[in-house]
Amino acid sequence: MEISNAKQVINITPELQARIDELLSHYPADKRKSALLPILHDVQDAHDNWLSIELQDKVAEIIGIQPIEVYEVVSFYTMYNQKPIGKFMFEFCRTSCCAVRGTEDLMEYTCSKLGVQEGEVTPDGMFQVVGVECLGACGYAPMMQLGDYYKEHLTKEKIDTIIDDCRAGKIDLHKQAITE
Ligand code: FES
């Protein structure tokens, strides 16, 4: 994913700082980097689900490591976003089990319903549809990830309901939300 020039307001709230401190407390002083992945998750959750370079620099400063050590992690894992994304990102598994159970058809349906191509964000910033590799829930194919949750045995009707629920504010994206 390419790096974005979009501006991001950095806000490390006392609640978020307390969560970071708690994660860091699990490791010795010379191994603080071990907390990097969960810290990035929480920081990203609290910043509209993406991590600008400035925010990655802030994380490096908080942990006490070099910025490059954060960049290399953020750019490696697809769960970290380097540019603004849709509030509700539908991550459809398109690997074997899900593929044979109709992922492509469901993705096409979802994109068409939302009026976007794969990867695009809807003009209102609400939705984005992407294809990802196996999410380890093959027995529940076809499935997708939405925030911290899996939506399984998908059908077009279920997708209609999920979209409606997103618009109605009924979808909880994070199991352990730390918001601004
Ligand atoms: S093939 Fe879709 S979750 Fe494994």
Automatic annotation (TrEMBL):
It comes from the Bacteria. The keyword Iron applies. InterPro entries: NuoE-like, NuoE_dom, NuoE_N, Thioredoxin-like_sf. Its cofactor is [2Fe-2S] cluster. GO terms for molecular function: 2 iron, 2 sulfur cluster binding; metal ion binding; NADH dehydrogenase activity. Keywords: 2Fe-2S, Iron, Iron-sulfur, Metal-binding. Belongs to the complex I 24 kDa subunit family. This is NAD(P)H-dependent oxidoreductase subunit E.
